[in-house]
Amino acid sequence: MTAASTPASSPAPGSSSTPGSSPVPAPHAVLGAGPAGTSLARELASRGHDVRLVDRQGKGPAIDGVTRFTADVSTVDGARAAVAGAAVVHHCVNVGYHLQVEVMPLIQKAVLAASEEAGARLVVLDTLYPYGETHGAVMTEDTPWRATTHKGVMRAELDALYLAAHAEGRVRVVLGRSADFFGPGVLNSTLGGAVFPAALTGGEVPGFGDIDLPHSYTYIRDVARGLATLAEHPDGDGRVWHLPTAPALTTRQILGMIEERTGRPLDVTVMSEPRPFGPFDDVFMAEYAEMFYQHTEGQTVDSSAIREAYGLAPTPLADALDETLAWYRGFLAAR
């Protein structure tokens, strides 16, 4: 689970950091400048691609090889401006949890139409929500979609539309599914800003649901590596892929690994039911209640397919935690 911020008010669609200017040509347009979109933009640029990073603000630290651009991709005009001239469009946009059922379909409609008009391939960052409750069964790309929650059904419907657009020859589409994010820059997730700062400073660390069940977490840099690789391999289009995800441990084991690295015992508060905590306010947790099953049954993601096809192994969890803690130390020092 990753909480998203409510979209800020946006400037006119198609504006950049210089109001009224046209987008700088870039083969890759990354929509959404949150942790996933920003990590993906960095990854694509490190592979030598020219990248346009799009969000409703168009602001942020400079990234070599990346041009920032401002657009509201929930509108057709905004999406059209955002993807102009792109060969590959990466959809990494998310919205506030309480807005998802209403807004995510609008974004999909606009982005699909704009990508079709531009003749661009579409790489979509996806979630595990369409699977619904699996009762602890390992999730593969062949796991049936049995979502019953409002947000799960919405995500399944969107994914069916993406794959239908591909099957109909309108847009070449590929979907990359991720478990809960964690890593540098990831704040609003169950393994994020409520965990690492508290672990480093002696604060209260939340543990959602049954922390003795296996739970997969996907490292944000593996999300970026997976999406970038799918962008470079059109032979993988027309289907769902699981992004590289380390073998599942229990959340308690992961918290133990964090404890070992910080050299201090963690003050863990187990939350058997959803309630406000840290960055998860009452609005968010009221919406998240229907998804809390993710923490009361095992959640194990098998990402062997992308490894076998493209040689993408997940970052070892120990290394990912080391890198995450190092980032949070810098983050806390800067504050």
From TrEMBL:
Which residue intervals define the domain NAD-dependent epimerase/dehydratase in the entry?
32-237
Q: Where is this region: Disordered?
A: 1-33
List all Low complexity biased stretches.
Answer: 1-23
SUPFAM superfamilies reported for this sequence = NAD(P)-binding Rossmann-fold domains
User: PANTHER family in the record, alphabetically?
Assistant: NAD(P)-BINDING DOMAIN-CONTAINING PROTEIN-RELATED, PROTEIN YEEZ
Q: What is this protein called?
A: NAD-dependent epimerase/dehydratase family protein
